[in-house]
Each structure stands twice: as C-alpha cells, then as structure tokens.
Amino acid sequence: NAGVTQTPKFQVLKTGQSMTLQCAQDMNHEYMSWYRQDPGMGLRLIHYSVGAGITDQGEVPNGYNVSRSTTEDFPLRLLSAAPSQTSVYFCASSPPGTVSQYFGPGTRLTVT
Amino acid sequence: AQRVTQPEKLLSVFKGAPVELKCNYSYSGSPELFWYVQYSRQRLQLLLRHISRESIKGFTADLNKGETSFHLKKPFAQEEDSAMYYCALIRDGSARQLTFGSGTQLTVLP
Fold first, then answer.
1. Residue A2 has pLDDT above 80, yes or no
2. How many CB atoms lie within 10 A of CB A46?
3. Nearest residue to A101 (alpha-carbon basis) of A6, A51, A39, A31
4. Among A72, A93, B24, B56, which residue's CB has the most CB atoms within a 10 Å radius?
C-alpha cells in the first residue's frame, strides 16, 4: 500500500490563480480530511468527508472547495489564491471503527 | 468551542534526562486525547491515545480530567526523540475532527 499520497510536494502560485491539491489513499478508508499547518498555530481542519459523495466544513473552510466522487480521492481546490493561504497542507484518512488518522507527506504552498 | 494549549513552543533536554511536554485542553464534554509526532522530513504520525493507555517508544500520557491535562512524559530522553509533538483532541460526536495544539519542538541534546 502507498498509504496517503499528496501531489504536488511544492507549489508557488500568484495571487488570484486557482489550483487543485491532490490527495489519494489506497487503504479503502471512508474518512478523509484536509488540514493546514501554520507556524505557531498547529494544524487546523479545512474540510472533511465521511464517505464518497459526502463533505463538510471544518474550522477554516473559506477559500477552499472539496469534492469526494470516489473513496480513494479527496482533492482540495483553491478558487482564487491569496497570500493568507501560504501554508503546508496535509491530507489524512481514517478507517472505519477507529479515530486514528494517517497523514500524507504534505504540500508546501506559497502564494505571492 | 474546544481548545488545546501547548504552552512550550520549544523544549530542550539532555539525553538521559526526563522530559515532560505539557498539554491542557478546554472542553466541557468527554474528549478523546492524542499525541501526534512529526520527525524531521517525515509525515505526522500517531504516537499514542489516552484510551489505549499504552507506552509507545517509552512515552506515556495520562488524562487528568480534573486538571484537563494530558501531559506527555518519558523518563529518559533519547536523541531520536527530537521532533515536533502535537497534542490533539476529538470531541465526542464530532466525526473524527481533530483539534490540534500549536505544537512543541523537542530537542534532545547529546
């Protein structure tokens, strides 16, 4: 199993550009989530999904969209990038019957 | 709303010394508490959870509901313990949504 994978590893965007951060898992986990990690603030939940076709907002959803058309994939879309979205983004997944979460390697995004 | 506080951003100890990373939380219900660790250039991983009451890599953590704390302890620190440590909670009924503290960077000196 590859576990949780994220692409790209690094990305630089200009203000106003849009892009999609990819997240995939091959463990058949029904729960997936996106966090952003900022210095001095820990990780904050952006969006999460409890299964294909179901998504919900976390603590900091503004400026981000998600969809979950398959169990495996959970892409995060930045509609119009802003410098405040400069961060490291982590995707995580969790199997049924447990709250333990498996994290991806992260995507470091810089918005200029 | 729930909150997790880790008062120390940085903590340095010498190899072989005891280490304690502090974590306090505010939540009126019955949370589940976790410690996650991120070693240099590695992904975030679960270290331990209060329900399992395990000792992982020599670390233990006891949930103190009276003091709303979940401090992480190890009697003899090793250099390989150097990492960023995050305390986190899931509130009851929250569908696995983790609330993280701001993290403590532990450095174990030789």
1. no
2. 23
3. A31
4. A93
Residue contact A50–B44, C-beta within 8 A: no
- Measured between alpha carbons, how far is B6 from B18 in angstroms, rounded to an integer? 18
Residue A90 has pLDDT above 80, yes or no: yes
Mean residue pLDDT of chain A comes to: 94
> In this structure, what token pair is assigned to residue A3?
């576990």
**Nearest chain A residue (CA) to B10:** A40
Nearest to B102 among A42, A90, A106 (CB): A42
Size of interface A-B (CB pairs under 8 A): 52
Terminal CA-to-CA distance of chain A, rounded, Å? 36
Q: Is the pLDDT of residue A33 over 90?
A: yes
Q: What percent of chain B has pLDDT over 90?
A: 71
SS3 B51: coil
Amino acid at A105: P
